[in-house]
Amino acid sequence: MAHWKQRTVAKRVSCTGIGLHSGRPATLTLAPAAADAGITFVRMDLGIEIPARNELVVDTMLSTSVAVGKARVSTVEHVMAALHGMGIDNCRVEVDGPEIPILDGSAAPFVCLVHEAGVKELSAGRRYLVVDRAVELRDGDKVARLEPSDAFSVEFTADFGHPLITNQSFRVTLTDRSFEREIARARTFCFLRDIERMQAMGLARGGSLENAIVVDDFSILNPEGLRFPDEFARHKVLDAVGDLALLGMPVVGAFSATKSGHAMNQALVKKVLAEASSHRVVRVSAEADAPSIHARVPVAVPGGQIA
Ligand SMILES: [Zn+2]
User: Fold this and answer.
1) H-assigned helices in the chain
2) 190 CA to middle of ligand 1, Å?
3) How far is the CA of 104 from the centre of ligand 1 (A)?
4) Domain spans of the chain?
5) Kind of pairing, strands 254-258 and 153-158?
6) Strand, helix or coil for residue 23
7) CATH annotation of 127-294
8) End-to-end Cα, the chain, rounded Å
9) Which residue has the higher pLDDT, 189 or 163?
10) C-beta of residue 49 within 8 angstroms of C-beta of residue 42
């Protein structure tokens, strides 16, 4: 494949699961989309399309939600991470309710769906958001930063003041394979002490040991244990990849964060988009050969590496 062309999924593929917060069953379908369409969520029950763009983000409390009017889709970050991490530029993400199914709490089931669908190359060249100047947000000891780099890398330091999650860092340079191998399987996590509080607020109704790591004061309650020793930091990297996907195109830049979350990540995305001098949008000619591209757009972005 020529890696400078936009990609979509080759055919429709579906899965069914429950929403983490609503506890309701939902069916999700990935469907092909045209070049430059981007990722669009489609509320099939309402017939409303919601483009996956930062300006349509309405809620970042526990997950990232996008909405057009009253039509909302919640918990978009894991499927966004999977599509972005697998180098899918354009896709319709159809869902028959207000929440993306949580499945196993990671991005791995969505990566499997992309494999099941296959990848189709489109005739248009890809667009990249190339970071030219660092943009940073700070709030006490929380930091989120995007700076120039010749690759797309994500680094996260998680620190929850908990014996199992103290100063845990993970850094990855993203390519198709590194996302799938090192990030996709990392599951979401929560603290036992927060679950009762969340359920009293009507949240996490679908939460269980099947779709989240649950941690009490000292230990992990899941009988199977962790998938990676640093699964918590890896999942925060996964969330950040999903949040940065709302920039609307692959990023050429280095993201690093300490103790940030969806709200801060989306605020950073908003700031980058608002500061025109912080970045350029580069469209790669679909006919160009890889070596001439290499001088302008680096190779290490999902779907961008030279085979
Ligand atoms: Zn997450």
Assistant:
1) 77-85, 108-117, 176-178, 192-200, 231-244, 262-274, 290-294
2) 10
3) 11
4) 5-124, 127-294
5) parallel
6) coil
7) 3.30.1700.10
8) 8
9) 189
10) yes
d(CA 9, CA 263): 29
Please state, rounded to an integer, the average pLDDT across all residues of the chain: 90
Q: What is the CA radius of gyration of the chain?
A: 18
At a CB cut-off of 8 Å and minimum separation 6, what does 137 contact?
143, 144, 145, 260, 264, 267, 268, 271
CATH architecture, domain defined by 5-124 = 2-Layer Sandwich (3.30)
DSSP string covering 201-237, please? TT--TT--TTTSEEE-SSSB--TT--SSTTHHHHHHH
Distance 5 CA to ligand 1 centre (A): 29
Give me the residues paired with residue 13 across strands.
Answer: 30
In contact, 102 and 75? CB cutoff 8 Å:
yes
Instruction: Kindly state the DSSP code that residue 32 receives in the 8-state scheme.
Output: -
Q: Among 3, 21, 262, 279, which one carries the catalytic annotation?
A: 262
Does the annotation count 262 as an active-site position? yes
Residue 13 is encoded by which pair of tokens? 């593929």
**E strands within 24-178?**
25-31, 39-43, 48-51, 57-59, 65-68, 71-73, 91-95, 119-125, 127-131, 135-139, 142-147, 153-158, 168-173
- Residue 204 has a pLDDT of 79
- The pLDDT assigned to 293 comes to 39
Note whether 188 and 231 are within 8 A (CB).
no
Distance 292 CA to ligand 1 centre (A): 37
For Cα atoms 30, 62, 171, give the angle at the middle one, nearest 5 degrees: 75
C-alpha dist (Å) from residue 206 to 25, 139, 187: 9, 31, 15
CA 188 / ligand 1 centre spacing (Å): 5
pLDDT at 307 > cutoff 50: no
* Ligand 1 centroid – CA 236 distance (Å): 7
pLDDT at 164: 85
pLDDT of residue 306: 35
